[in-house]
Design brief:
Elements lengths: L7 E3 L5 E4 L13 H11 L4 E6 L5 E4 L1 H6 L16 H4 L5 H12 L4 E9 L2 E13 L5 E10 L1 H26 L3 E6 L4 E2 L3 H6 L4 H4 L4 H6 L5 H15 L7 E8 L8 E9 L8 E8 L1 H24 L1 E7 L5 E5 L2 H5 L9 H6 L6 H12 L5 E7 L9 E9 L10 E8 L1 H45 L4 H24 L8 E4 H8 L9 E5 L3 E4 L1 H19 L4 E6 L5 E6 L9 H4 L14 H12 L2 E6 L5 E6 L6
Parallel strand pairs: 19-21
Antiparallel strand pairs: 1-2, 3-4, 3-7, 5-6, 6-7, 8-9, 8-12, 10-11, 11-12, 13-14, 13-17, 15-16, 16-17, 18-20, 21-22, 22-24, 23-24
């Protein structure tokens, strides 16, 4: 028979020492047999730490479980007050609280509490009881501190609380989610229905719990096709034996009392299961608006494709960091004469360009990649080896920062085939050159006999006097005006290539003596210099002055002034003006209300203005006469 632990004392190091019957309550004749048996059972307990204390709180002995459960804490504790030992220092309660518990035990009260024991990386949760050991007469002989290791139980309770908290959070998220959420069990019944789905089908969530989904079909809320699609989809979700596969269905819902159909996208996931299929989780989102927008985008994309093909143009975007083409829309093969894959990056684009034009394209690209410019354009030909050469005009701008969808800088561009336009421009230049040559020849051939007629008329006037001479002189002057207008019209299509700062007021003053002004007067109220071709500006002003005198009379007053609301100038007179309904017609060549007018004056003015890039409009002057506004000019000061 083994010796009971109570038959021995402990040494200063806490290990068992020699026999000491008086140290063991079970050896005390005054200790009741019941208390003795309880003490023996507790001290021998293999999973309970037991610390025997003197009534004053000094440690008397510890059992083996205490040494194993609380490593190093048992060393050097025997004979010392428990609140002053390393054991007390490693508890989550304070030494003062421990003294209070021991004091309560000395008052014959049993004290229980939970605490945590920490030593280095070791952490244990303890369920502690402090009991007084009494003699037969009721006096306190010893105090027993017993502790169970309840770490696993505490961790389990803590994990359970965490999971319950997560569950509450999940239930809150599901309940407040704008998406409809429900479980469709193996029998096709709806479970765990949230408010959003119930609102979608205009039912109460509690009412839908356990309701077959097919009931919504019978009521006409959702179409039969949804059930058929689900039955077809489910085997696919289960085919690989996993519970992670997700499928999609579209559900058209028509809530009761609502004629408008809404389109929903349902994401269906198989719920985890061990042996028997338990159902699916269904998340339903209203995609009515997005489907409508997708339809609009498809329509816009179709229209864009039609426009790009009709104009033989390309829309493209290029990643400036990698030089790779992100997207390109339009008839690539028709425009660049290469396969679409050949334009996958900048190098491919440059290779498709005519060798003589590559330098211009490369310089434009380097300007945007280096940050020197955010917008560039280039005109080039396609490579002759790729077939018929096209002329292409490309304009592009850089999209950076917040303007770029993902923050990466990209180059957006439009490339257009203008081969036909270039041919038309070349043909137009040839026609203009021929017209000007023809006009020069005609004017020269006409001026020669006209000069002879004019000279003969002067000679005739010296020899005789006749009323017919004035009519002949008028015809000669008329012919001279027609020749001048013919030359002006021949030059009207010429583009302004060089400009210089020109003073509008001074030019008007210089033009005035060069025309027949009779008793007309000129007032200039503008002191502005503009960018213009000086000779063409003079041509514009002279024609307006002649036009005002022809239609306003010999004593008409003409004013040249500056526009108030925009950059430009105006010329107005105090004559009869041009009726509002006839102003567009007045700009056409050949229109004139004067008997001796050529009808080309305002037409020539409009052509000169357009050649400069200016705008022209007819209006009523401040004195009721005609007013011509020339807008959009560039001031130089």
């Amino acid at each position: 028979m083994r010796n009971r632990p109570s038959d021995r004392t402990t040494g200063p190091d806490g290990r068992d020492g020699g026999a000491d019957a008086s140290a063991d309550p079970s050896a005390d004749a005054d200790v009741s047999p019941v208390t003795r048996r309880q003490y023996d059972a507790l001290f021998d307990h293999p999973k309970m730490a037991v610390v025997v204390l003197e009534p004053d709180g000094r440690v008397r002995r510890l059992n083996e479980s205490a040494r194993e459960m609380l490593p190093d804490a048992a060393k050097g504790v025997v004979g010392r007050p428990l609140p002053e030992t390393p054991f007390a220092e490693r508890l989550s309660i304070t030494p003062e609280q421990l003294r209070t518990h021991l004091e309560d035990a000395r008052e014959r009260e049993t004290v229980t509490y939970e605490t945590r024991y920490r030593y280095g990386a070791l952490s244990r949760d303890l369920d502690v009881t402090v009991d007084p050991v009494t003699r037969r007469d009721g006096s306190i002989e010893r105090v027993l501190l017993t502790a169970y290791d309840v770490t696993q139980r505490v961790e389990h309770e803590r994990e359970l609380r965490r999971r319950n908290e997560q569950l509450r959070e999940f239930e809150t998220l599901v309940g407040t989610s704008p998406d409809g959420i429900f479980k469709l069990d193996a029998d096709g019944r709806m479970q765990y229905v949230n408010g959003a789905w119930a609102e979608t089908v205009d039912r109460d969530p509690a009412e839908l719990e356990g309701t077959p989904f097919a009931e919504l079909v019978e009521e006409g809320v959702v179409p039969q096709q949804v059930v058929e699609d689900y039955v077809e989809l489910l085997p696919e979700l289960l085919s690989d034996g996993t519970d992670t596969e997700q499928g999609k269905l579209e559900i058209a819902v028509t809530p009761p009392g609502d004629d408008d159909e809404h389109v929903y996208e349902a994401r269906i996931s198989v719920l985890p299961y061990d042996e028997a299929f338990d159902g699916c989780a269904v998340v339903v989102r209203d995609v009515t608006e997005s489907r409508r927008r997708e339809g609009q985008l498809d329509e816009l994309r179709d229209r864009l494709t039609y426009v790009l093909e009709g104009t033989n143009s390309l829309l493209w975007s290029l990643d400036l960091e990698t030089g790779e083409m992100e997207e390109i829309q339009g008839p690539v093969e028709q425009l660049h004469r290469v396969e679409r894959d050949a334009l996958s990056d900048v190098s491919g684009v440059i290779e498709s360009v005519h060798p003589e034009d590559r330098e211009d394209v490369t310089e434009a690209y380097e300007a945007v990649t280096s940050g020197r410019s955010d917008q560039e354009s280039a005109t080039y030909r396609t490579h002759p080896d790729n077939g018929e050469t096209n002329w292409i005009r490309t304009s592009a701008y850089v999209q950076r920062g917040a303007d770029a969808p993902d923050g990466s800088p990209r180059l957006l561009g439009l490339s257009t085939d203008f081969s036909t336009a270039r041919e038309r421009q070349a043909e137009l230049r040839r026609q203009n050159d021929r017209l000007e040559e023809f006009a020069s020849v005609v004017s020269h051939d006409l001026r020669s006999p006209l000069a002879i007629v004019d000279a003969r008329l002067e000679m005739a006037r010296e020899e005789a006097d006749s009323e017919h001479f004035e009519h002949i002189q008028g015809a000669i002057d008329r012919m001279d005006d027609l020749i001048n207008d013919l030359l002006a019209l021949a030059r009207k299509g010429q583009t302004i290539t060089e400009t210089e700062p020109v003073d509008v007021g001074e030019t008007a003053e210089q033009c005035w003596p060069r025309i027949e002004t009779a008793d007309a007067t000129l007032r200039t109220g503008i002191e502005r210099r503009i960018e213009a071709d000086a000779s063409r500006l003079a041509q514009l002003l002279e024609n307006l002055f002649r036009n005002a005198i022809e239609h306003g009379g010999d004593d008409v007053a003409i004013t040249v002034g500056e526009l108030d609301a925009e950059s430009g100038f105006f010329i107005e007179d105090d004559g009869p003006g041009i009726p509002e309904g006839r102003r567009e017609e007045a700009l056409e060549a050949g229109y004139s209300t004067a008997e001796d007018g050529t009808g080309f004056g305002l037409s020539i003015v409009r052509e000169v203005a357009e050649a400069h890039g200016w705008g022209m409009r007819l209006a009523e002057g401040s004195a009721g006469g005609a007013r011509i506004d020339i807008a959009g000019v560039e001031y130089t000061e």
